[in-house]
Amino acid sequence: MANIKYIGNDTKKLIRGKIHIKEGNQTGCGAIINDNPEDWVSTNEPVTCEKNGCK
């Protein structure tokens, strides 16, 4: 299962470059991917998000 990397600029909620678990249209920690799909890219890199649901 591929993870998903945040490449957007929304520093209030997410840190740029963090890698999350992808669960459907959101991350394991609850960020909605479909709101700004251009801010996300699939990756096989290990998860770096420390929030509940991803770590």
Supply the key terms.
4 strands, 55 residues, globular, 4-stranded antiparallel β-sheet, mainly beta
Structural topology:
Blueprint: E1 3-6, E2 19-23, E3 26-27, E4 40-43
Antiparallel strand pairs: 1-2, 1-4, 2-3
Q: Could you walk me through the main structural features you see in this protein, from its secondary elements to its overall organization?
A:
A four-stranded antiparallel β-sheet has the order 3-2-1-4, with no helix packed on it. It is mainly beta and 55 residues long. It has one domain (3-43). It has no helices and four strands. The chain has strands at 3-6, 19-23, 26-27, 40-43. 0% of the residues lie in helices and 27% in strands.
Tell me briefly what this model is:
With 55 residues, the chain is an all-beta fold.
Q: How are the strands of the biggest sheet laid out side by side?
A: 3-2-1-4
Major beta-sheet overview = 4 strands, antiparallel
Backbone CA Rg: 10 Å
Order of helices and strands: EEEE
Low-confidence stretches: none
Figure out the total of helices: 0
Average pLDDT across residues?
92
Strand share of the residues? 25-35%
Q: Give the tally of structural domains.
A: 1
Structural class: mainly beta
Q: State the separation between the terminal residues, measured CA to CA.
A: 15 Å
